[in-house]
Specification:
8 strands, three-stranded parallel sheet, alpha/beta, three-stranded antiparallel sheet, 213 residues
């Protein structure tokens, strides 16, 4: 990539309206768009984008996740060095999954406690890797000259009146994540640690990427 070339971003999304919005939101990238699995895989091979965003509801199963997970499986097959960080609920420890069915591993890594139920993996229950390692920069040290860690864990929002039970539950998780990240940073600090001001954003602000950046 030349100095002036934009990094490539592959957006796998079948909704044309969302395709246009994402192209607008990510104007600092060369956005490649695929509306189905085969197009996505062809672009991945030909263009080698640095980042892929994937909609799980793809044709011919736009209302389900089978085609999206099948696409993810092929992407991971083409990128066998992918590491997935999850938390083994039964053993109460972090698990780095590098082999086996990685689609299940990804499902395990995004299982937010009390919100998303993760799949059983190797006979164990898993929850989000954030529970044990919110900023897992330590897993990319090998072969790297400089490690830059970006912490987007967030923190509880300021109270606007009486907090609901859900706000307290989510806020408690965020407190836990921040404490764990702080302890891990003390044990093995990265070369550069960035903690952007994201308190005014939520997990549903998908199209406010320009403001976030």
């Amino acid at each position: 990539m030349t100095q002036d070339a934009k990094p490539k971003l592959l957006v796998v999304e079948d909704d044309e309206g969302l395709q246009r919005q994402l192209k607008w939101a990510y104007d600092d990238y060369e956005v490649l768009v695929a509306g189905d699995r085969q197009t996505a895989i062809d672009l991945l091979r030909a263009e080698e984008p640095a980042v892929v965003t994937l909609d799980l509801g793809l044709p011919p199963d736009p209302d389900g996740v089978t085609e999206g997970f099948a696409t993810l499986e092929e992407i991971l097959r083409l990128k066998p060095d992918t590491k997935v960080i999850a938390t083994d609920f039964d053993l109460m420890e972090e698990r780095v999954i590098e082999t086996g069915p990685l689609v299940k591993a990804v499902g395990a890594s995004i299982a937010i406690p009390g919100v998303i139920l993760g799949p059983s993996y190797d006979g164990h229950s898993y929850v989000d890797g954030c529970v044990t390692n919110p900023v897992p920069f330590n897993h990319v040290r090998d072969g790297m000259d400089i490690v830059v860690a970006v912490d987007v864990s967030g923190r509880p929002r300021e109270a606007n009146g009486h907090r609901s039970n859900m706000e307290l539950a989510v806020g408690s998780l965020l407190i836990l994540f921040n404490q764990v990240a702080s302890l891990r940073r003390e044990i093995s600090p990265p070369d550069i640690y960035v903690r952007p001001a994201i308190d005014s954003f939520s997990g549903t602000d998908y199209f406010r990427i320009k403001e976030v950046l």
